[in-house]
Amino acid sequence: MRHDGRSLARAGTRLTLITSTTGPRPADFTDVRATNLAVVLRFVRENAPCSRADIAASTGLNKATVSSLVADLIERRLVRETGLTENRVGRPATMLVLDGSPYAAAGIEVNVDGLTVVAVDLSGRQVLTLRKSFPGIGASATQAVAAVAALARRTVNRMVREERRVLGLVVAVPGLVGVEGRVRFAPNLDWHDVDLAHDLAAALRDPEFPIQVDNDANLGALAEHRFGPYGGAGNLVYLTGEVGVGAGVIVDGRLLRGGQGFSGELGHVQVDPAGPRCGCGRLGCLEAVAGIGAVFGRFSEGGPAVSPAVVAPEIDEVVRLARAGDRATLAVLADIGGSLGKGVAILANLLNPQAVVLGGHYVPLAPWLIPAAEAEARVRTIAPDAGGCRIVASTLGYGAAALGGAARVLDFIESGRLPTRP
Which ranges carry the HTH marR-type domain (predicted)? Predict the structure, then answer.
């Protein structure tokens, strides 16, 4: 049988919608209505403005069911009507768009030099962005919990003043985060086995919204997949450009986590056996030869290490020298880019992504890193033209992982965990 996004197949008495999308779909679940509400909500997000007839034709749900579901979503203030359109065959149709004005989804990124919080409404529009300095590399996990909790309270209070209800908070951490949300190891923060979600819930006195924790690269990838220029790509990789180098991997539209949630540690793949020692203790890891720390190490000539607190000014100075055509600077960046290309080639050979997105501090350096990285990746990838993989700079700014945390909350809502009526 030939299947497409609108085909229906009957197996016994069960009717199942067969679709190529990776999101929720009508199915014979216990709470089929919640599932179908999520289907409609996601369709409106991806196709707004759209009509009830559009929803019925594309999802396979009958018109009466769609009308009931839309009425429910309007009552919950997740969807709203936005007038009529006559640019179609037949009678004018009432069009629908996302509402979500009473709600917010929040993400907080913990890094070695600061905390970033991003809150969005259900359409993905940012309603709050804050960045706060934080000595993460020298702070204990207890101090970090207190700092994150304070920022979370500030965020919730701000949303309350705007008459928004926070639906969830996801915290991004640069380290190994298990599928249960426990931070097993964050070397650049010197954390070991920290139950951050539990500790935060206790610090916030068990808030009404759920708190979850995930790896920063995973959340950066979710942000790129939902909001970035390559959002339509089913296969992409996001590389963090902070003190560490992590990879968030999207395969066939879904985040790749691995058996215990520890996938994506590309920064600790050895690319130069004779290379410098990495923070993990091994020699020649990608992070040691192509991370932001490696950039500064090449310029310091054995001088004192660059403090995380002054990374941004140092990056600005490197950019200034590169723009001025300083030969030594250009040579270092080309060499770093070539090492980065070795890591990209590993990804291209194993995963064949459509794009590898460079984030964080890689972004301002991208004009000089990408040409060398692409050249190296083409040489080292078996498939011609690196299998069609493109290396691009993120357009989401330094808060991509925090934005990805908010995106994950939105994903939960669209999977059927809808808020109660306001």
Answer: 40-81
Which CATH number is associated with domain 103-220+402-414? 3.30.420.40
Would you say 389 and 353 are in contact if contact means Cβ atoms under 8 Å apart?
yes
Angstrom distance (rounded) from CA 79 to CA 48: 10
Kindly report, residue by residue over 383-402, the tens digit of the pLDDT.
999 999 999 999 998 899 99
Q: Please provide residue 389's backbone torsions phi and psi, each rounded to the nearest 5 degrees.
A: -75, 135
Q: What is the pTM of this model?
A: 0.86
CA–CA distance from 57 to each of 38, 52, 62, 64, 307 (Å)? 16, 9, 8, 12, 57
Backbone torsions φ then ψ of 236, nearest 5 degrees: -150, 160
Cβ atoms 356, 241 nearer than 8 A = no
Per-residue model confidence as pLDDT tens digits over 190-238 = 899 999 999 999 999 999 999 999 999 999 999 999 999 988 789 999 9
Element (DSSP H or E) covering residue 107? strand 103-110
Partners of 236 in the β-ladder: 250, 355
Beta-bridge partners for 80:
97
Write out residues in the chain with pLDDT < 50, as ranges: 1-22, 26, 28-30, 303-304
At 199, list the tokens: 């500790």
3-state secondary structure of 115: strand
| Contact assessment for residue 122 and residue 100, using Cβ atoms and an 8 Å cutoff | yes
Give me the residue label for tokens 């679709």.
Answer: 19
Q: Domain extents for the chain?
A: 29-85+92-98, 103-220+402-414, 231-395
Q: What is the pLDDT of residues 155-184, one digit of tens each?
A: 999 999 999 999 999 999 998 998 888 999
